[in-house]
Amino acid sequence: MSNRVHVAGDAKAKVGAVGKGMTTNDRAAREILRRMLSVEHKMGLQAFWMKFLLLPDQNARVTRLAYTLELYAVLSGLVLFFVADIVDVDADGVLGKISTIFAVFSVLNLMCVIACCLHLGFAVVATTGPAGVVLLLQPLGQEFVQIVIGIVSGLIAFALKLADRTDGKFCIAQ
Keywords of this protein's UniProt record, alphabetized (predicted)? Predict the structure, then answer.
C-alpha cells in the first residue's frame, strides 16, 4: 500500500502522474479550478473580479496572483497613510467622534488586509496543486471586499471630519 507520503516496498514514486493517485478532493478541486478559469464557464463568485487570469499564458497565473496580492497590500498601505491622519483622539463635536470611529475601523480593516495579503502571497507561491489554488481564491476575493470597505469607511470619516470643522456653517450665502 502506498500513498503520497510513503512509497511501500519496491514501488517507484512517480512525480507528475496525472489522474493517478489523486484523491476525490483533488479531482473536485481540479474541476472547480478548470471551471473557474475557463472561458466557456461563468466564473465563480470568489473570482468574479479576477478576469485577467483568463489570459492565455497559464504558467504565469500564480505570478499574477502574487502580483495581485502585492498590489492589494500597497493600495491598502497608501490608503492607510491617508486615513491615519483623520484619526483625532481629542475630537470635540459629535461628528468628529463619529469620524474617528469610522477612521479607526478603516485603519483596522486595512491593516488586516495588509497582514492577510502578505501571508497569502507566500501561500500562493508555495501552493503545489489545484486544491491549494481553489482554497486561496476565496480569501483573495474577501481581501478585495475588505479593501473596498476600508476605503469607503475612510472616505466617510474624511467627510465627517470636514463637516465637523465647519462648526454648523453649511450655508455659503448668509
Answer: Membrane, Transmembrane, Transmembrane helix
